[in-house]
Amino acid sequence: MPSTTSIRLIEPADAAAIAAHRVRDAEAFRPWEPAQPDDFFTPRGQEERIEGLLAGYRAGTVWPGVVLAGDEVIGQVTIGGILPQPHLRRGSVGYWIASVAQNRGHAGNAVGLALRVMREELNLHRAEASTNLENLPSQRVLRRNGFTPYGVAHAAILLDGSWRDGLLWERILGD
Ligand SMILES: CC(C)(COP(=O)(O)OP(=O)(O)OC[C@H]1O[C@@H](n2cnc3c(N)ncnc32)[C@H](O)[C@@H]1OP(=O)(O)O)[C@@H](O)C(=O)NCCC(=O)NCCS
Known about the structure:
It is an enzyme of class 2 (transferase). Residues 5-170 form the N-acetyltransferase domain. Belongs to the acetyltransferase family. RimJ subfamily. Keywords: Acyltransferase, Transferase. One of its GO terms (molecular function) is acyltransferase activity. 32% of the residues lie in helices and 35% in strands. α1 crosses α3 and α4 crosses α5 (136-144). The model has no long low-confidence stretch (mean pLDDT 97). The chain is globular and about 40 Å long. With 175 residues, it is an alpha+beta fold. The protein has a domain at 5-125: Gcn5-related N-acetyltransferase (GNAT) (Aminopeptidase). The N and C termini lie far apart (38 Å). It has a seven-stranded mixed beta sheet, with helices on both faces. A hairpin with a 2-residue loop joins β2 and β3. Bound molecules: coenzyme A (COA). The site of coenzyme A (COA) has 21 residues, from β4, α4 and α5.
């Protein structure tokens, strides 16, 4: 039976699972995720990074989540760049799923759950995301969640040693 997807706030105790996934997937993720320093791939380095994300959560600028399949951590979903001001009320969604758990709908489900957090917990009005032009699986995840592309940001992100364009996506959440 396929395991159910859920999301929750990240915890320092998630560091070891995340480091293990990112070590295993370092090569597979190279075209899609920015290069990281060596300590990104260690539990200690991840723990420090998680503390930083939780400081951002306390400041109201980020909602840092993990994605679970059953009770196993399989990835991250992060609502970043949160602008809660009444005339903006927007945030940007980013995510990754470990290669061992891909193509089972987990990212699509996790983004749907993150949109619910944005609406119901963070009271946001607009969701944004950015994908590589060639990242068709990530684009499917967004389309399935009602996002539409609205533009291209040129030379916007350094991936695998070259500046790549970003396809920009939006989804209006409500009033
Ligand atoms: C992108 C990513 C998050 C998708 O996670 P996932 O859990 O496998 O996603 P889902 O199973 O929910 O959906 C994948 C979709 O891509 C489709 N897909 C898979 N491989 C594909 C390919 N080569 N070409 C086109 N579509 C493809 C699947 O059929 C599915 O679409 P569907 O819902 O219409 O059937 C995951 O591959 C990942 O973490 N990749 C590396 C890091 C990354 O790209 N992060 C996002 C940066 S924007």
